[in-house]
Structure formats: C-alpha cells, structure tokens
Structure to design on (1115 residues):
C-alpha cells in the first residue's frame, strides 16, 4: 500500500503536479545532486580502498576483498544514517544538541582512559568488529550545537559574550581531542567554528584573536609535551620536505612517495591496480590518509580532476543550501558543515601534495573507515534535512 | 527572527573555498603534468631490487687434470640494509642473530660498517651457514625481518697446502683495490683472486655475473621477478704443474731445510785461531726458508715450484677471526719469517757461484777469452787487481781477492793453471775475478758483463704468470746511484762504478740480485742453445664446465681448449756457437761428474762427491753450485744455491734450489736438485698425491709439514769448500 501511495504522489508527466502533494513536502525537496556527489565519491572511494589494501592483504595471505567488504558495509551504514537524519526535523535535533554534545564530551573523556592505543594515540573505542572514533561524532554534535547557539543571536553582529561562550564550547571538545592527541580533528572543529563565527558576524578582531590563540596553544602544547613529539615532527617535516634527518625520515619519505605517486600518474594514470607506488604498499596509511595519491596515480589527472570536481559539486550544493535556507539555523548548519568539509578535504589532499603538514585526517567519503564515513553522512544528512524543510 | 545572513558573508566563505580548492587543483596539475617526468625515473629504482647472481668460478687443474681449485655451493645469510638502518633496531636484531649465526655481534656490526660491502646489495652476514641454520632463519622470517639466505660459491682447495704458492687464494677486495675492481663492474662483496694463479687469471676464472631484478614493495617483499640474466661461469685453467712432482719438490725442500737446522755451521775464529768470543761456539744453520723449482727448458712450463715456509690456502676462506689469522700469519719485519712470499719468483738473492756460467759466457762471447781451449789462468789462491796502482792499495782500497779456504791447508785453495772448464768445475773465484776486472778495464770500462748477462733475463722480470715477481738487479753505475739515493749504500760509494764492483759481480756477489726463477730461465737458455723462453704455470685456458673424471680429477679429454699456451713466448735467441756453448756445458757437467783438478792435491769438482750415487747414465745432467755470502760473511749466514739441467734433449728439465742460511751450495741446495733429477731419472718414485684431510680450524700450524718418505736421495757428502 505504501508503495502505491508513493507512486500516486509522483508528479504526473503532464506537468500539472499532484494536487494532493504540497510543494513543501520534505521528501520532494531532496537535493539529488548532493546525494549524487556523495554516492559518486563513495564509489570512487571503494575502488581506491580496494586498490590500496589489496597488496597488503595479499602479502599476508588474506582475502584481498576483505577490507573492501568492510568499506561497503560502512557505506551502507552511512547511507542508513544519512536517511535517518534526513527524515528527522533539524529543529527537533537542535533541541537535543546540548545533550548530544555532552554525550560527545563524555565519550571523548572515556576514550582518553579506555581507548585503544594505536600509533601512540588513543583515538577510538575498540568494539571488536568496529572501532568508534568519538572525535568524528563530535564534529556532528558541535556543528549542531554551535549553529543552534549562534543562530539564536538576533543581532547581525556577534556580541562579545556569545563569542566567549563559543570559545568555551569549542575549547572543551578541542582540548579533549588535542589530548588524544588528534591535531587534525581539532583543526576541523576549529575550522567549523571559524566558519560559523564568520557568518555570525563576528568582528574581525575576534577571529584574529582566536586564530592567534589557537597558534599559541598549539605551540604551548608542543613545548609542554601534551602534543606528542611526532605531531611536532610532522610539522617540522612539512617545513623541510627534503630533510635527510633520521627523525623526520618516515614522514618525509611518506610525503615524498605520495607526491611521486601523484606525479607519476600523469594525465591518464597508470591504470587500475597498476600503480607501482600505491599498489606496492610503499606509502603507510595509504588507504586512509593518503588515498588521494592512489587515485591520482592510477587514474591520473583525469581521475583526480573528477574527484576534485565532485568535491566542488558537494560543497557548492551545501553552500547553495545555506544560501537558499530561510532560517538562520538552517543557514548556520549548512555553512558550518561547508567549512568543516572544505577544511578537511583541503587538509587531506593538501598533505598528499605536500602543501600542508601531515595530520591523520581521512578524506571525506573516500578514505577507508567507518567513523568518518558515518559522521560525514550524518552531517550531509543534516544539511539535506535543512534543504528538505526550507519551504515550510 | 533576524534577517538571513548577508550575501557578502556567504561570498567570503565561498570565495575562501574556491581559493583552497583552486590551490589543490593547481598543485595536482603541477605535479602530474609539469613535474611528472623528473619524478618518474626515481620511482623505477625505488620499486625494484637487483640481486646479482655470481657465476661459478673457473676451476684450476694440474697438468694431469687434478682439481687444485674447486667450488662448493654454500649458503650465505644476508640482511636487507634498510631494515637495520636504525642503530637501536640493528643492535637488537644483531644480538638475536649472533646466536643463530654463531658470529659475535661485533663482527656483524663490523660488516655493517665496512665499506667493503656493496651498499646496494643485501649485506652478507655469514658465509657457509648450515642447512639447519638456513631452515631456522627461513622459518622465522617474522622474527628476523630482512634476513635472507642466498646461495653462493665457496672456493675449495682439495690438495692444500700442496702448491699453495702457485695456486694462490682468494680474498675480499681490499679498500685500495676497490676503485680498480669497481671500474671492472665488480660488486664490492665479491671475493677476488689475491695471490697466485687465482690472482693472475682472475679475469679468466671469474666469469660474468648475472643478475635478477625483482619488483618489491616498501616492506622489501618481493612481488615478482622482472628480469633475469643468468651468470656465465668462468673458464677453467690447466696448469703446467704436475702435482706429484710439486709435492715431491716441496717435501725435498722442507726435509732438507729441517736437516740443515741440525748442522753446526762452524765456529768463527780470530786471527790467532781462538774462537771469537762475540759469537757462540756452536751455531746451527737457521735454514728458515727456501725455494725450489723444476721446469721444462724447451717450453718454459713450470712443473713444480716450491717455496718454504708454505701455507695452507684454505685458511683464507675458513672464516677464522683476525686474531687467529695474525697468529697463523704473524706480522714480522724479519724477511726470514715471511710466509706469503713465493721465494722462487719474489726472492731477492745473491746468486754466488751459480752465476759464474754467465760470466764465462760473457768472457767467451765478447772475445775476452779468445780461445777457450788454450786460455789458462794460474790460480794461486789470491788475485790482486792489476788496474789499481799499489799506492792506492796501500791507502786501503781493496785490491786483493781470495779463493775460498781449503780445509786441508786452511789457506785459500790453489788450483794451479785452470781452463774455463776447470774453473767452473772447481768454482775458482780468482779465475772469474780476473775476468771481472779485465772485461771492464781492457774494454774501455763499458758495461759489457751487464749487457751480456742481461740477455739471459737477469735484471728484468721473466714475465711468469704469477704475481709479485721481482725483476732483479744488475750492478751498474745507475743501480749504485739509485741505491745511494735510496740510502741503501753510502753516498760516496754510490758515486761511481768501480773495478771492485765488477769483480764481485763476476762471481755473483755484490749488488747482483736475482730470483731463483731467473736462474731457472737462464740455465734453461744455456741448456737449449740460447733460447730464452717465458716461464709459465698455466698451460691451457679451457672452456668452462670441464667434466669430472676419476675422483679428484677433471676429464681433460673432454675439455675444450680456448687458448693453448704450453709453449712459452720466446723472449730472445742468444747466439751460442759450439765454441762458446760447449766449454761452459762441459764445465758444468764436470761439476756433477768430475773430475776436478789436481794441484797440490786433488781438488774435487764441487758436486762430484755428492752426485756419486746419482744415476748419471739414466739422466745425465750439468749444474753449478753456489754459496751466497750473507750478513757479515758469517758462516751460518751462507745461503745455498744449485741449478742444473738435463743433457738429454728428450727430457728437457731445469731444476733450481735456493736454501737460505743453510750452508754451501753442495750441502743444501744441490741435494734437493739431486732428488728431483733422481726422480726424473726414475730411481726415486715421487709419492702419489692424495686429497688432503679437511682443514683443522684449531690447528696452530700454517701448513701441515711435508717430509720425504725416503730422504735417501738427499744423502751424499757436500763439498768442504765454499763453492
């Protein structure tokens, strides 16, 4: 019956429309281009993940499709989460933002004591089959909370107390994320905040002061050892990309191989599974942090161009949703999401190309992994939710 | 509800996005299009690893096909250098490996630091590991990352130490040799011939290495084979050495030296006949070293070449510690102790009277003695130089030269009127002193003696195919000047070439220096009517893969000859008419057969008594004894020399022996040569060679001792006169 109902609701080919269906019906206002961009990026990601995990799995004598299968499960899970978030009214979600953010903070605290240690950092809960990274979900809850909080301000210019309050909200989660330590995720949270402060009409000097504060605290963190020295080394390696220093070697080589992989791809690429560098397991964390080099090597400038175009499409659609939204909350959600995805994408591809320091950020929708996939799906779902209900 | 966000702010955010995305796009384009080519080539070397495949080295056979140098497949534990680049990880891994490989950590670390191994190739940690160790390492590849087991070759010398000085040995490329071998595309890991035939025929024996190129991933794991070029094995070398004779000559030499060490050299007496108190009364000969060789005088083939002290050439690939090595091969400044010196080709010796035949030749050839049958010199035991005025002699210039003392009279022997034949038979010094003076003073002080004997190969390397050959030195004005320059002789003595120098030269003393091999070549030239032939130890270069024959032998009948060098290169043909040749050969024959001369009493020819029991009818020979005076002319410093050749042209053999600090020529060297010719004559059977027992790593002897089974052929009485 439900199916029949759905069929009846479809606009007729005559162009008259179904009079029983309102133009404001959320399900009629899905941004299909945005859905397409996400789906296309995930598909490219699945191929890239397979190509980069296969040699490692083969050398261990494991089924080469093992990690691809998991990635597909993550994509399906992400799709389900996105659909769920889309189905829920974002205003209703805004009402639960404080609770969600609080839960995120608790999770961030718990992961510091109970998280699984990997590469010297406690980033995730190991739940056997899956591991959860609370920092990823913090992105969603912070976006929701900050967008809600800042959009409440009726004044077009952000007052001082709200600016300070914003810093307190962000500071709590950024501080915890830095303790993990996960410098990359912290910058994404900050990027979201900066974007929101900008659109909220924050004074330039506020933004300048928060930026200098961030730099200052990063420096202090580095010196005091809160941020482990390897985070610091990544920055050093970024400044000396041709360094032959022993301590920097791993990072320098990692980036050098990634750059070479991109460069040798040329215009048409080496072909799928034929990239000597990315398919030869030369680059550590190839399937997550350095996945873009795999695309560029195997599919060349064309593949990289398509991927970048899809990201541009994704961001354009989100930006457009922000512009079209008639509510301040909707606008803030869209533009906060926009800032976050923009920064994370730029940061990830930038480090592959050697124009940003290395930080362990996955490329949205493309890199291997469940947490970021689900988190970004939720964020995009939230933006869709805004769009779907814009005519209300 | 306030107004929605201004378009300006949206524009700023959008613009920011465009800038960042633009940056990324530009950078991607730049890398992929502009930078692409320069990075492409570097990637290729990163993802492949080349492992060189060493060829099987050519084998070395003796003249009958006995395998003197063989190869054995061995397993080598190696490590990928990139795995142990970090000192802490290296220390940890080496510590664990040292037990498995039974090698101290310090040795592993030394190899890692050493520049002698190819930095682009896996580092060899230990050669010759057992099958079990290899299996152990392969099974635990996770515990020993980067450790691999490769196959290689190990050189074996089944008959060591026999012929070690000739066959030689292999060793790692030394640091100073590295540029040379690199220019020949050697890997620094390779072992090369460092001595003997192994060294001279390195280019023939080595073959051509191949390689296999693998595609590897970053973990160093091999993904697939890209390219394989099989190595080309080295060519085999067949020597002229007959190992049975080689062993026999070595045994005779070592036995004789051992016997001489038990002989008292005599007491040094003062003018009044009392023993000189500065020396002990009893002085045994030291007989520390010596050499002997047997060659074919027609072809220049060296049939046996012995040098004592000998060594076991298996020590060089036994993997012993440097301490153990130093113990076996001590660093010594004393030339008597030097082990890795083939004295037959590298010894710098005075020849003593064995040189006299060439002075005789110079006198006859230059016309200094016009008619050898008529020329006689009355030997009164002393010779006073005619060209030096009496006044100068009284000023202290040495003018009077004496013969050796006859024990019967305790005065210089007097031989009366002697012909050139007589002079050679009894080894009259004064006869040759006179020639030495007159050939200089009566012919305008031209270096006639030097020029004449140079034709026989003295003063220049013979060109034998063995390393470290000494070319010898002939006394001349130039030699004296250069020796004075080097500080070997006093400055004012180096100013001119005096008559006295030529007189000493004429009896093979003074500044003359030659090798036993040069003696062999020059006597060969006397034997074969003046043909000076390049001596050699390699007879044939054979195509690789000569099949095995009987146990320990290669089947030479199935060998393919690439290069035949049995007949040595003719260096010179000295014109030797019978009137020049015959008196000399007759004189040398009388040395062995007698008679001597009868003056005052019967003076035996120098070898007459010794060779009494030699089968002269079976294999007639001619030879010459010699005693080279040593340091301070002390009796125990006399070195003994003897050279002889067969008079039967169908058995064209020359034999030479030189025993350092062992006494008169007829006492030590001549018995060795006598044994050799007795064997050639068929009255003594050289023992058949059998493969050696495996090398005992714990042994402290540098080579097992070799003694004649029956030393009877050495027996006989050497002369009582310094010959």
């Amino acid at each position: 019956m439900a199916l029949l109902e759905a069929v009846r609701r479809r606009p007729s080919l005559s162009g008259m429309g179904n009079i029983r269906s309102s133009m404001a019906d959320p399900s009629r206002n899905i941004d299909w281009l945005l859905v397409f961009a996400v789906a296309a990026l995930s598909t490219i990601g699945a191929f890239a993940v397979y190509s980069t995990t296969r040699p490692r799995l083969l050398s261990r004598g494991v089924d080469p499709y093992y990690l691809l299968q998991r990635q597909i499960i993550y994509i399906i899970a992400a799709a389900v989460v996105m659909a769920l978030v889309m189905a829920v009214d974002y205003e209703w979600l805004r009402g639960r933002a404080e609770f969600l953010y609080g839960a995120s903070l608790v999770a961030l605290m718990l992961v510091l004591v109970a998280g699984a240690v990997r590469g010297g950092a406690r980033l995730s809960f190991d739940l056997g089959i899956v591991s959860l990274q609370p920092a990823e979900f913090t992105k969603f809850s912070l976006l929701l909370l900050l967008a809600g909080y800042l959009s409440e301000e009726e004044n077009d210019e952000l007052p001082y107390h709200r600016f300070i309050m914003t810093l307190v909200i962000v500071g709590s989660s950024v501080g915890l994320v830095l303790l993990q330590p996960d410098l990359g995720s912290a910058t994404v949270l900050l990027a979201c905040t900066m974007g929101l402060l900008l659109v909220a009409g924050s004074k330039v000097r506020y933004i300048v002061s928060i930026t200098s504060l961030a730099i200052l605290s990063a420096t202090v963190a580095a010196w005091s050892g809160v941020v482990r020295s390897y985070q610091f080394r990544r920055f050093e390696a970024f400044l000396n990309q041709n360094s032959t220093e022993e301590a920097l070697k791993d990072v320098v080589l990692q980036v050098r191989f990634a750059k070479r992989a991109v460069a040798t791809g040329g215009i048409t690429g080496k072909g799928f599974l034929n990239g000597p560098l990315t398919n030869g397991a030369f680059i550590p964390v190839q399937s997550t942090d350095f996945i873009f080099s795999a695309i560029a090597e195997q599919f060349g400038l064309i593949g990289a161009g398509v991927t970048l175009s899809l990201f541009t499409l994704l961001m354009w659609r989100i930006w457009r949703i922000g512009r079209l939204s008639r509510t301040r909350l909707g606008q803030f959600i869209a533009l906060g999401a926009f800032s976050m995805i923009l920064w994370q994408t730029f940061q990830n591809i930038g480090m592959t190309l050697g124009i940003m320091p290395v930080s362990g950020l996955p490329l949205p929708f493309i890199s291997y992994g469940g947490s970021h996939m689900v988190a970004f799906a939720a964020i995009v779902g939230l933006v869709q939710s805004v769009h779907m209900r814009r005519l209300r | 509800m306030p107004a929605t966000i201004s378009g300006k702010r949206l524009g700023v955010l959008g613009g920011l996005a465009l800038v960042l995305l633009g940056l990324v796009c530009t950078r991607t384009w730049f890398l992929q299009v502009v930078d692409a080519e320069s990075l492409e080539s570097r990637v290729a070397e990163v993802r492949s690893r080349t492992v060189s495949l060493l060829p099987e080295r050519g084998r070395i056979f003796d003249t009958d096909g006995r395998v003197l140098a063989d190869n054995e497949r061995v397993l080598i534990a190696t490590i990928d250098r990139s795995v142990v680049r970090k000192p802490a990880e290296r220390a940890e891994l080496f510590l664990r490996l040292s037990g498995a490989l039974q090698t101290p950590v310090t040795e592993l670390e030394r190899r890692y630091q050493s520049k002698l191994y190819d930095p682009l190739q896996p580092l060899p940690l230990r050669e010759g590991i057992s099958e079990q160790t290899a299996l152990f390492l392969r099974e635990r590849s996770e515990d020993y990352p980067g450790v691999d087991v490769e196959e290689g070759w190990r050189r074996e010398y089944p008959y060591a130490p026999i012929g070690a000085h000739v066959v030689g040995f292999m060793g790692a490329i030394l640091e100073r040799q590295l540029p040379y071998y690199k220019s020949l595309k050697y890997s620094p890991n390779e072992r090369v011939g460092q001595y003997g035939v192994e060294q001279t025929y390195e280019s023939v024996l080595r073959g051509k290495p191949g390689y296999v190129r693998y595609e590897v991933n970053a973990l160093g794991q091999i993904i697939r084979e890209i390219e394989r070029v099989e190595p080309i094995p080295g060519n085999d070398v067949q020597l002229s050495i007959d190992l049975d004779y080689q062993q026999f000559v070595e045994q005779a030499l070592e036995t004789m030296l051992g016997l001489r060490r038990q002989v008292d050299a005599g007491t040094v007496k003062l003018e009044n006949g009392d023993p000189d108190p500065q020396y002990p009364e009893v002085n045994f000969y030291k007989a520390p070293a010596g050499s002997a060789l047997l060659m074919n005088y027609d072809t220049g083939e060296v049939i046996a070449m012995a040098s004592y002290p000998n060594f076991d050439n298996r020590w060089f690939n036994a993997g012993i510690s440097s301490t153990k090595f130093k113990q076996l091969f001590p660093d010594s400044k004393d030339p008597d102790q030097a082990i890795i010196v083939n004295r037959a080709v590298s010894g710098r010796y005075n020849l003593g009277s064995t040189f006299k035949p060439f002075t005789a030749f110079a006198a006859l050839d230059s016309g200094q003695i016009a008619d050898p049958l008529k020329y006689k010199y009355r030997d009164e035991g002393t010779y006073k130089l005619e060209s030096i005025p009496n006044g100068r002699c009284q000023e202290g210039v040495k003018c009077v030269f004496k013969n050796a003392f006859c024990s019967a009279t305790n005065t210089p022997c007097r031989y009366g009127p002697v012909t050139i034949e007589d002079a050679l038979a009894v080894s009259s010094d004064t006869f040759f002193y006179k020639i030495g003076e007159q050939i200089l003073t009566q012919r305008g002080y031209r270096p006639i003696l030097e020029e004449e004997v140079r034709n026989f190969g003295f003063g220049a390397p013979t060109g034998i195919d063995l390393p470290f050959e000494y070319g010898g030195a002939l006394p001349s004005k130039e030699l004296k000047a250069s020796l004075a320059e080097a500080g070997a002789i006093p400055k004012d003595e180096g100013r001119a070439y005096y008559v006295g120098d030529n007189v000493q030269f004429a009896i093979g003393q003074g500044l003359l220096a030659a090798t036993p091999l040069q003696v062999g070549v020059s006597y060969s030239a006397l034997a074969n009517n003046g043909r000076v032939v390049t001596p050699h130890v390699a007879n044939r270069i054979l195509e690789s893969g000569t099949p095995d024959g009987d146990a320990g032998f290669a089947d030479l009948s199935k060998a393919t000859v690439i290069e035949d060098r049995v007949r040595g290169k003719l260096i010179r043909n000295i014109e030797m008419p019978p009137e020049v040749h015959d008196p000399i050969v007759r004189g040398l024959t009388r040395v062995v057969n007698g008679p001597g001369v009868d003056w005052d009493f019967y003076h035996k020819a120098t070898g007459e008594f010794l060779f009494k029991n030699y089968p002269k009818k079976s294999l007639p020979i001619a030879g010459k004894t010699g005693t080279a005076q040593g340091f301070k002319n002390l009796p125990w410093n006399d070195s003994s020399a003897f050279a002889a050749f067969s008079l039967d042209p169908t058995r064209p053999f020359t034999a030479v022996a030189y025993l350092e600090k062992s006494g008169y020529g007829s006492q030590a060297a001549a018995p060795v040569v006598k044994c050799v010719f007795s064997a050639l004559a068929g009255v003594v059977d050289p023992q058949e060679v059998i493969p050696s027992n495996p090398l005992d790593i714990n042994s402290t002897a540098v080579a097992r001792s070799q003694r004649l089974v029956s030393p009877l052929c050495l027996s006989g009485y050497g002369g009582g006169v310094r010959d």
Summary: The interface with chain A takes residues 1-7, 9-10, 12-14, 16-17, 20-21, 23-25, 27-29, 31-33, 35-36, 39-40, 42-43, 46-47, 86, 215-219, 221, 223 of chain B (CB under 8 Å). DSSP finds 22 helices and 27 strands in chain B. The mean pLDDT of chain B is 90. The radius of gyration of chain B is 34 Å.
